[in-house]
Amino acid sequence: MDFGQPRKLNVDRLFFCFLFFIPLSVFLFLVDASESALFVIAIISLMPLAHFIGKATESISLLTNPTMGGFVNATFGNIIELIIALFAINAGLIDVVRASIIGSIISNLLLLIGLSMFFGGLRFKEQIFNTQAAGVSSTMLIIAVVGLSIPTLYTATHENVVIQPLSDIVSVILALIYILGLVFSFSTHKHLFDPVEEFHRHHVKIYYSAKTALVVLLVSLFAVIFESKLLVNSIEHASVTLGLSKLFIGVVIIPIITNIAEKIAAITMAIKNHIDLSIEIGTSSAIQIALFVTPLLVLFSQFLNTSFTLVFPIFKLITMLFAVMIVNYLSSDGRCNWLEGAQLITVYLIIAITFYF
């Protein structure tokens, strides 16, 4: 008896019901409601939009070849985070952007993978995954740590540093290695990722036709732009009213809400004993944020009112380093259980609580 499909349909219906919050946010905007209310409704509205963008992107990927699928995932995998960050940079909320970047990375590595290992481990005593694919991701994560840390450390140890050109050059290099990683995964060494590819080919449902997927994607992106604008405009007021610091909103709330669809998908895959896919979702998203989204923000910021550089607060970089270290260590043997998932969740909670205070 297959209990997976009904659970999946319930999740889809839940996200469909959450679409109600989009017209509600438009109404609140038109009647000039409080910014705190707009903040809450806007961030809830992004949840179903992330879900349907993911389904549309997934459908397009499955209807095309692996190379095109990789390009589509690279372009739209974290599009919501990119749009929110661009609005925030334009509004001068640089600290929030830096916090959301680090928050997205640690959320994907610690919370998403941790929840997947925990719930998968409750059903299966031990789960096995591809160490070769995990090794590629581990190296890319270390490169991400190096790329995001070196400009900060150089600025801290040298005087009169002109950081923008350095950030621009490092960003181009990081984006280049990310693109090479896609070529490696989807072309020259795709055999290393066969278990994940086989799962996609035989078990993942194509939700939309190519034309429908494109329409869903475009409409969702238009709605994301509107909701992201509301969210960014209300962050400062909501921070004071709700008693939450802007750093906590950036590190914890925005990454969790905008990636909730990915987290549900990863947990579902782990419960079905496809922990390979769960780990790929978490590591790929973290890598994309660090090596693709962040460089784009640095380069795109040149056309906005406020420049954005790769200089991060030391404490945020340390939290990212810890996240990468523990994930790389736990994934080195190709086996996982519920306790290892609980350990990852524990580290995430410690970091999140620290940013709350």
Short note summarizing the structure:
It is built from 15 helices and two strands.
Account of the protein in words:
- By secondary structure, the chain is an all-alpha fold.
- The protein has one domain: Up-down Bundle (A middle domain of Talin 1).
- It contains 15 helices and two strands.
- It has a two-stranded antiparallel ribbon with strand order 1-2.
- The radius of gyration is 20 Å and the shape is globular.
- Mean pLDDT is 85; it is low at 1-9.
CATH 2nd-level architecture: Up-down Bundle
Helix content: over 70%
Give the CATH H-level superfamily.
Answer: NCX, central ion-binding region
Instruction: Spell out the helices and strands N to C.
Output: HHHHHHEHHHHHHHHEH
**Strand percent estimate:** under 5%
Indicate the CATH class.
Answer: Mainly Alpha
Radius of gyration: 20 Å
Low-confidence segments, ≥5 residues, pLDDT <50? 1-9
Category from helices, strands and their pairing: mainly alpha
Question: Overall 3D geometry?
Answer: globular
Tell me the number of helical segments per DSSP (H or I, 4 or more residues long): 15
State the CATH topology.
A middle domain of Talin 1
